[in-house]
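tool_call predict_complex ligand=LZUJQKHR
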Amino acid sequence: MKVKVAILGCSGRMGRNLIQAAVEHQSIELVGGSVRANSSFVNVDLGELAGIGKIGQQTSTELESLLAADVLIDFTSIEATFEHLAWCKKHNKALVIGTTGFNEQQITDIQAYGESIPVVLAPNTSVGVNLLFKLLEVTAKAIGDYTDIEIFEAHHRFKKDAPSGTAMKMGQVIADTLGRDLTKVAVYGREGITGERDKDTIGFATVRAGDIVGEHTAFFADLGERLEITHKATSRMTFALGAMRAAFWLSNADSGFYDMQDVLGLND
Ligand SMILES: NC(=O)C1=CN([C@@H]2O[C@H](COP(=O)(O)OP(=O)(O)OC[C@H]3O[C@@H](n4cnc5c(N)ncnc54)[C@H](OP(=O)(O)O)[C@@H]3O)[C@@H](O)[C@H]2O)C=CC1
Ligand SMILES: O=C(O)C1=N[C@H](C(=O)O)C[C@H](O)C1
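tool_result ok
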């Protein structure tokens, strides 16, 4: 039996890749896609939207048109994600959230939905980045207490949030491993006479330029050597395929709040 999936905000950059990934996935059946009420992509064929030719299903502004779905996938905006969470709870649907930019309180609020429905929240659905989170844990344990830790991320000019959700999670993983409070040790960019580096800080640097899909590096720097751990995404399909993996996994999960590490078995 195929898992029935619907894509929320399906006319976006990720939405279009998600349509293609769903159509091409052998264990997934695409049952619909939503766009917002004033969108210029209302009643457009989903396949045409994704650039893969007509598939005979059209975009809709009505979430009710997605009731056939077992799992919904949301790569939209903070405001839209919360509307989608409320709808999924009302209709007892599972939700994969790839949207980023949530603050701590919003993440706690999303977590609460896990008491009613299955929810995956993943700032990065690629396999590589989720392995990188594991490498950060190992590295921070080994050398994090005496190296300078800096996180760099680069994305396309259209990205709205900074630092990226992935960079924030990288910082969180490192801070948790070292027993530091990220809200106290994070430094977001530097300017002017900053003074010497405070040893326990975790720095974040952001670049926004052109069509960069997504690049992340963690630096663990000492005097005389430094370790850099880098991930580069070169296609949004890598995120879309990861999201399908999450949707398939979530279709068999109980209500709960999960991350991509659960999906990939990296928490075992
Ligand atoms: N987890 C991961 O691996 C990844 C996460 N992301 C995250 O996914 C999100 C989307 O990224 P991207 O696809 O590049 O962005 P886009 O702006 O291209 O797409 C967002 C989509 O969401 C729709 N949308 C936004 N607000 C609303 C709303 N209030 N109601 C209904 N629909 C809405 C937009 O519609 P409209 O165009 O009409 O405004 C658009 O179709 C971002 O938060 C990004 O950081 C991105 C890549 C990978
Ligand atoms: O907006 C994007 O494009 C991306 N956003 C995610 C993030 O904020 O970490 C993941 C990916 O790097 C692409």
